[in-house]
Amino acid sequence: MKNSGNDRKLAAILAADVVGYSNLMSEDEAGTFKALSVLLRDSIRPMIERHGGSIVKLMGDGLLAEFASATDAVTCASEWQSAATDGNSFQFRIGVNLGDIIHRNGDIFGNSVNIAARLEALADPGGICVSASVRDQIARSSDLRFVDLGPQKVKNLNEPVQVFSVLPGNAERVARPRAEPVAPVLAPLDKPSIAVLPFDNMSEDGDQDYLADGITEDLITALSRIRWFYVIARNSTFTYKGKAVDVKAVSRELGVRYVLEGSIRCAGGRVRVTAQLIDASDGHHVWAERYDRQLEDIFELQDEMTQTIIGAVEPEISAVERARVAGKSPDSLDAWESFQRGVFHMWSYSQDDHDAALSFLTRASELDPGFAPAHAYRAYVHYQSVVMHWVKTDEMQVELDAGLEAGHKALAADSRDAVAYFGIGRIYMMKGRTEDAIAALESAIELNPSFAQAYHGLGMALCLAGRFDEAHKANAMCERLSPRDPIIWASLVVQALTFLLSRDYDNALIWAQKTRRHPNAVGYWPHAVLAATLAQLGQIEYAKQELALALQEVPTLSISELHSAYPTTDEGGLLPYLEGLRLAGLPE
């Protein structure tokens, strides 16, 4: 199938390499070379040709082969891996892609070839990864099974590639084969750990290295402020600068669970920054994003990129950690796992979840009294029970006092825990200590400038203080830092409340309706704020309908309860909200 000229055609490309080839060569160079040559001559080449393919080129530890169809390529790959488990001393990774290629002087080129090579790199030892185009071609006509690994960001491609792992048709369980470590594995740490690899400078101008390095160093510094996971120091991660790396090898060598990598490209006064977070335990791409900005103030750009990326990365890691422990028996959980289960229930925002969150976080605190985040989030759970009206009115102060005690225990364990200041700030707000609340929440942000929920809390405290413009900015920052946040509705409803209290009812309606439409919105808040806004605009019948929904959530809701629960700096600061609810029919 080789061609000496130029020829563009549709083909299936199979890329394969030998796992641990460098180690094998260092142990027995002559023996490894001879054994691989024999395997290639007697088994692999005949197998490829038997399935209608041909080897395009050999690359020491790997090869590229071309097939007329995706079915032929994947059938060959499956047979190859089955044969490899039957006694030979080599393990292979294989990737298969379908797309246009260009033949030139006996070689093949094009993005399709590049993707096949990247798919091979994503495969586990003994495994096969294919693109969506391959899977779509053969899924119905083959007894092979496919595991969707999701969109994977690969180098030199702007858009993620949908990747599938291939399982034999008789596989009894969906699981990726596990790689045997080829180097000593560092002992696991007692909480998650991350390495930020030096960002690649993809610009034509090599002098832009300073920008890539600056963003990397800022990310390391910013992540180090988040107290619930470890960050590998700069001097270790920069040893990988300029090298092609295998994230699983990085995981083993640095003893980390997560790897953050990315690139920058500058051209024409603009810069493109890409970043991707990888779970190094299985190579799964947890999160990937691309940012395009004007290249004007370098320091401002670095600050913005750092804050934006950290704001996205922290909740993604937290979500993966919660998923790790979701199926475990509560009695078997250690302090870290109990903490993660508690956080999962805390962000689920229902009364049953609230009770479960308090139980798990209390258990985490008892298992490790010095574990500050468990105390800190326990403070927030106590606040949550009051702001969502899950406790009776006469129990609210007791609940807030319990939360304040937990917050101070967190600070006693770690005086720089941002979540502790966050929880304390939210409780101060409910106690009417608005200026103390603002100061505590500003401390949380100073300790962790990417703490989206602290900006949300600050926005509400500023709203109750009558500092409406600042409140809008704080909530906008929350949305910017965590746009995919499942509870972003809470920030939206505070924006609506801020417009409502400033008597800008038209904008209040826009934000209240946006909150109401959010799929995750729960509790009485979205209905109550929308009801008050509609009533202020004279739409009484619609207001009554929304109020009825709010009362389904909190049957005891009343004007006097809301007046006492949300003290404002200005005595009449809550009046537009209460007036609206009174017009809608809320009892005194």
TrEMBL record:
InterPro entries: A/G_cyclase, Adenylyl/Guanylyl_Cyclase_3/4, Nucleotide_cyclase, TPR-like_helical_dom_sf, TPR_rpt. GO terms for biological process: cAMP biosynthetic process; intracellular signal transduction. It comes from the Bacteria. Keywords: TPR repeat. TPR repeats lie at residues 418-451. Residues 12-120 form the Guanylate cyclase domain. SMART domains: TPR (SM00028). One of its GO terms (molecular function) is adenylate cyclase activity. PROSITE patterns: GUANYLATE_CYCLASE_2, TPR, TPR_REGION. This is TolB amino-terminal domain-containing protein.
